[in-house]
Structures are given as structure tokens and as C-alpha cells.
User: Fold this.
Amino acid sequence: MAKASREPKISAEEATARLRHAGLRPTRQRVELAGLLFQDGDRHVTAESLHDEVSGAGVKVSLATVYNTLHQFTEAGLLRQVIVDAARSYFDTNTGDHQHFFLEKEGLLIDIPGETIAVAGVPAPPPGLSVDRVDVVVRVRRN
Assistant:
């Protein structure tokens, strides 16, 4: 998880450009959240962990706004949502082809490079539908 005391590694201008390129209006809160989200390359966050991070950075934003913004970023293709169970969702800044290991007790997602896992036997979808992607979450534990 990111430490709130770090300075964002992408500038407000870079965050604004990324938002505009995705078709999103660069509001102050979206720019702040994008600056924190994309500061360290690929990572996984929950709405709660990002809210803690922005609060620690002195940005006043509600948890509801963080949730809404994460979903807007996902719809715009800036993030990928990874649902690990009915009560937990993570948002991944790596939108490329890959899967995940999940350490349940630690709440930690780890990327599995896309080329290291093959998914076979995906059934044909009903008429008029096509498979968009297949998400695999491999649950692991420490020995």
C-alpha cells in the first residue's frame, strides 16, 4: 500500500491529460486521485485504501466520491476492477492482459503475467454475446 507522505510522480498536467484522453472531465478531485493512483506504476488499491491515502495527503474527499471515481476510471478504461469475493473489490492500474494471486489473510493481490497462464475450455457465449475477458484469481497462502 502506498504511503501518503510521498509526492505524486505524475504532475497535475499529466493527470489532466490522462483523464482527458480517457474522455473524463478533469475535476480537481479526479486529478488528485489520478495523481496518487498512477504515481508508482502498476498497483492494486481498494476504495478504502485510496481514501486513507488521499486523506493522509491532506486532500478532503469522501469515501463515496472515491468509490464513484474508481468506477468512473474503470468505465473509462484507466483501471481494471478485480472482484475477489462478494465483499471485496480491488482496482488495478495495470489494464493489460494478466491474472492475479490473492493472499486472503493479507488482502494482497499479486500480478500473474498474462503469458504465464492459459485458460482453456471457456464455453461459447449465448447468441449475440462475446467473451470480453476471463478473470482468474488464484488464492494462495504462506507456508
